[in-house]
Design brief:
alpha+beta; 9-stranded mixed β-sheet; 11 helices; about 45% helix
């Protein structure tokens, strides 16, 4: 069993090391988080006195192991008097703690991934502006996103819940939400290096991108084939941008983007195909 500290650190690696750009056909949401958001996602607000284990205080308590997996049950027994309430609270906390480690899959999986807009629906249990929903096996992951006061299009995570297919109210968090947008792509950006990478793209979005690449190559007078198009798609995905013909001509700039052997191999493979086409091979 993972400790609270391990869960906290693993979640921080996913949510705080990177920013995420969630693309739909109508808008782009920029998701960014700091570690003070994590205790709430883990359910620490239900333990102890109000705000005792949330925000800065919660992050500090978890990192210093003032609150641990063992003390969670003791705190629930202390602050919730009836056995039924204790049982329900422990079940909810376990669902959060057992499944929050799947947030990485939630952002990058090629299964259906939808964005549910909350608007001002007061009947929803999720007090969020958007709700990201992802089904994986028998589980349904729900991640609430709330608007930041720091800028337009900027969001933070503010809630996390897991339901199961056999739950009577498995869809209760999103069944009444008025709008739903299918996500076309998710771009992940390393906060420190600013390196971007496409980690999710829908089949339809990839087909549109492939069509665009073929048109770009034709306009540039470059003979195209499936292998070259796929190589450019991989470049676009790895570096999180749509490469124009001028960018593909710039060998030094392409190689200058590489931060490891895998990226350099990807660029070198593309350049061999590209230069062969330019030479008429």
């Amino acid at each position: 069993m993972r400790t609270l500290l391990q869960i906290f650190q693993d979640t921080k690696e996913v949510l705080c090391r990177y920013d995420y750009y969630i693309h739909t056909q109508k808008r782009i949401l920029h998701l960014t988080n700091s570690e003070i958001k994590i205790p709430h996602l883990m359910g620490m607000q239900y333990l102890g006195k109000p705000n005792q284990f949330t925000g800065d205080f919660g992050a500090y308590a978890i990192k210093k192991q003032h609150v641990t997996m063992e003390s969670v049950e003791r705190l629930v027994r202390k602050y919730y008097k009836t056995e039924e309430k204790q049982r329900r609270m422990l079940e909810m906390l376990r669902r959060k703690l057992d499944n929050i480690g799947e947030l990485g899959e939630m952002f990058s999986s090629y299964s259906k991934l939808y964005l549910y807009e909350k608007e001002k629906n007061k009947g929803s249990e999720f007090q969020s502006d958007y709700l990201l929903v992802h089904e994986t096996g028998k589980k349904i992951l729900h991640l609430g996103l709330v608007k930041s006061e720091r800028g337009k299009g900027l969001y933070h995570c503010n809630s996390f819940m897991t339901t199961y297919q056999n739950d009577r109210d498995r869809d209760s968090f999103y069944r009444d939400l008025p709008f739903r947008y299918e996500i076309t792509r998710i771009v992940r950006q390393n906060k420190e290096t600013k390196h971007k990478e496409v980690i999710y793209q829908s089949v339809e979005a990839e087909q549109r991108e492939q069509d665009g690449i073929e048109k770009m190559l034709a306009a540039a007078g470059i003979q195209t084939d499936e292998k070259l198009v796929k190589s450019i798609l991989r470049l676009n995905r790895k570096f999180g941008i749509y490469h124009t013909a001028d960018m593909l001509h710039d060998k030094e700039a392409l190689l200058g983007k590489c931060t490891d052997k895998r990226e350099k191999s990807l660029v070198t493979e593309f350049l061999a195909l590209w230069e062969g086409k330019e030479d008429g091979v």
